TrEMBL record:
<comment type="subunit">
    <text>Monomer.</text>
</comment>
<dbReference type="InterPro" id="IPR032678">
    <property type="entry name" value="tRNA-synt_1_cat_dom"/>
</dbReference>
<keyword id="KW-0648">Protein biosynthesis</keyword>
<dbReference type="GO" id="GO:0008270">
    <property type="term" value="F:zinc ion binding"/>
</dbReference>
<dbReference type="InterPro" id="IPR056411">
    <property type="entry name" value="CysS_C"/>
</dbReference>
<keyword id="KW-0963">Cytoplasm</keyword>
<dbReference type="InterPro" id="IPR024909">
    <property type="entry name" value="Cys-tRNA/MSH_ligase"/>
</dbReference>
<dbReference type="Pfam" id="PF09190">
    <property type="entry name" value="DALR_2"/>
</dbReference>
<dbReference type="GO" id="GO:0006423">
    <property type="term" value="P:cysteinyl-tRNA aminoacylation"/>
</dbReference>
<dbReference type="InterPro" id="IPR009080">
    <property type="entry name" value="tRNAsynth_Ia_anticodon-bd"/>
</dbReference>
<keyword id="KW-0862">Zinc</keyword>
<feature type="domain" description="Cysteinyl-tRNA synthetase class Ia DALR">
    <location>
        <begin position="350"/>
        <end position="411"/>
    </location>
</feature>
<dbReference type="InterPro" id="IPR014729">
    <property type="entry name" value="Rossmann-like_a/b/a_fold"/>
</dbReference>
<feature type="binding site">
    <location>
        <position position="272"/>
    </location>
    <ligand>
        <name>ATP</name>
    </ligand>
</feature>
<feature type="binding site">
    <location>
        <position position="242"/>
    </location>
    <ligand>
        <name>Zn(2+)</name>
    </ligand>
</feature>
<keyword id="KW-0030">Aminoacyl-tRNA synthetase</keyword>
<keyword id="KW-0067">ATP-binding</keyword>
Amino acid sequence: MTVRIYDSRSQTVDDFSPVVPGEVSIYVCGPTVQSAPHIGHVRSALVYDVWQRWFAYRGYRTTLVRNVTDIDDKVLANATEQESWFALAYRIEREFNDAYRAVGILPPTYEPRATGSVPEMLELIGELIDRGHAYPASDGSADVYFDVRSWPEYGALTRQSVDDMEDAADADPRGKRDPRDFALWKSAKSDEPQTASWNSPWGPGRPGWHIECSAMSRKYLGDEFDIHGGGIDLRFPHHENELAQSSAAGLGFARVWAHNGAVTVNGTKMSKSLGNSIYADELIGQVRPIVVRYFLLAPHYRSVIDVRVVDGQLQQGSLAEADAAFRRIEDFLERASDTVAPESAEVPSAFAVAMDDDLATPQAVAVIHDTVRAGNTALDRDDTQAAAVAAAEVLAMLRVLGLDPSDEQWVSERGDSAKDAALATLVEALIRDRSDARAARDFARADSVRDTLADAGIALEDGKDSTTWSIA
């Protein structure tokens, strides 16, 4: 079977042809660590985690690089006197990694920080100047810009002409030849900390956003690599500018451009500036993390996922459906646990065909549920052999997607969930007993129940119509 992937540049689904046979190299634009991760960040990282897992299942040796942008205008803007920009960046980076781990996203092969590759950025900027595609600002500052009109293919990724593009707003236009020219190096500013400045041939300053990824992908994957991934919102200007500067420097750069769809809120783009971001810990707090993973990977990776929020509250609708759907899978595996499963099983061919077809997870997940239904039918008619085969196939598919409930990461989670449910059942039963005792004016019995719960660390609070409880 041949893996096929949609290339955003050609806008076609093509057979994957690696630079090095048997290997796949992927560069993914990671987070700008300015503030806490929202679910769009988690969805993007999850998409390339699934790609990595599927390529590995198909026998490829995979190298995944996901960068961290730890120096940027927004990082500097969010720093305070109490927390320097680099301390902020490190703290937020850890929050991202916690969110990734919570939903089972494997660590990338390499996770470079932009601040660790400044020499490589300076080298690349120098090459662009030597080739006539970049120039120092004309006002005597240390700014360096990419000359977009020097590269005839500028706009190839998003199929735009230069004249139709918006002005580049990433640097002061004072020394630009064209307002669309974008910054490769930014001159140090008097109101920015000295720690956010590096020496360069053009004067002290810091790198522009776009040059960071071109330099880091080259450093870790070479002049040409297989797949460049990221969110659809990065196509312009970030990825367009990466493609232009890397190509203008003579690099083969990315053979395929892959972009995952956005996560919207009530049909509107999720944005921190709009105040409608749903943060990762909010989503993970609603249901079990394994269900969050299922919820985010079940739609096709290029589709939009819309979440509903009413009066500032994340609605349970789609999450509840995902929870119910995944529990049906778990319930079947529990029912089939007494059968003697084959020692190993391949994923069904229909699942493999779907995954090979541009990672068509909706169809792949449908195969899982079809197999679950067939397995339950086999159990109903006492056909344990067929049920065992179905269970083995379901587990094989779940392992590929990182959704195997028996995996060590999820076992403790499911155990905690079961314990919580059991505790809640017992406490609610005792509360009902107490309410009955109070209704019968058996206050001694009611006080005894309260004391028993208090001894166990359970605090009760009587409201007008109900009693709530919490762990003291």
